[in-house]
Amino acid sequence: MSRVIVVTSGKGGVGKTTTSAAFSTGLALRGYKTVVIDFDVGLRNLDLIMGCERRVVYDFVNVVKQESNLNQALIKDKRVENLFVLPASQTRDKDALTQEGVGHVIAELKQNFDYIVCDSPAGIEHGAQMAMYYADEALVVTNPEVSSVRDSDRIIGLLASKTWRAEKNEDPVQEHLLITRYAPERVDTGDMLSADDIQEILAIPFLGAIPESDSVLQASNAGIPITLDESSNAGQAYHDIVARFLGEDRQQRFLTAEKKGLIARLFGG
Amino acid sequence: MTGLLDYFRSTPRNSASLAKERLQIIVAHERGVRQRGPDYLPKLQQELLAVVRKYVHVEDTDIRVSMENEDGCEVLELNISLPENNA
């Protein structure tokens, strides 16, 4: 049984594409045949983050409009077995995706893939709703910051009403909270919302936190999904998240500050 | 011990707890608005009222439309109080 996973957030710039690339790479590394689809029509970027921007010939909109077949548009990753990218169109407008057309493509992908990861555009309009419509599970990407948390709550509301599962009275979309750009030292000094605070407000199951890390920018500069950089905290955190998503019991790491000064240790801060 | 540490911290109230408090208020409010039902409810209420008025005179306040979720089943409830002598 293949599963459709939407990576969504409402707010832009919180790490949806980074997460889509890292998460799908993590699934493929574990042997699952995985495809990651860029739903951001007109503002395609997943191809850059995945490092396959020069190999795009046909795109998602071409397939939806039956101007090409799926195999012509799917880009096979050169580093990871079982990993494929379906890029967005850069020239069309976002209304090029129709519910029916997307449904056909997803149904065809389901015959061949274990996981179909949908990288949602920002916002709550058409493109974002197309990305979530056929989802079985959702990764709600949230930064520890007020506007991102509020927008995530809005998206959680849409997942419960504007999806195929909601409309057909099926089991609801399974939601997972994923906190990105987390800085435990700032949480300790009281300047950043903690993972507990965010869980309490959004009230969906917590999958894990990705620590703020320079290596995320370095990886995107090079077009390498951060999961392939196993030396980085962020890469390891994504591996943990993939493991937990697959039902493994992995203790939370990266939620507390690594090193404490002598003073802090003395005073038990 | 933490008390002693707090003593050395300069800000009396940290910004994260302020953020949490503000979020809890706004999120609760916005969820309340969402749960009142779909966007079309007020318009539906107006149009139903217009139809009913073709036959009986009812006041704006005599009609109530609500959407409720019972055991995963959505129920649209329509309540019209007719005047006592509706001849």
Automatic annotation (TrEMBL), chain B:
Residues annotated as transmembrane: none
Keyword Cell cycle attached: yes
GO biological process entries: cell division; regulation of division septum assembly
Secretion signal, residue range per the UniProt entry: none
GO terms assigned for molecular function: identical protein binding
Sorted UniProt keywords: Cell cycle, Cell division
Record has Cell cycle as a keyword: yes
SUPFAM superfamilies: Cell division protein MinE topological specificity domain
Assigned protein family: Belongs to the MinE family.
Summary of the function given for this chain in its UniProt record: Prevents the cell division inhibition by proteins MinC and MinD at internal division sites while permitting inhibition at polar sites. This ensures cell division at the proper site by restricting the formation of a division septum at the midpoint of the long axis of the cell.
Protein name according to UniProt: Cell division topological specificity factor
Natural source organism: Candidatus Venteria ishoeyi
Gene name of this polypeptide: minE
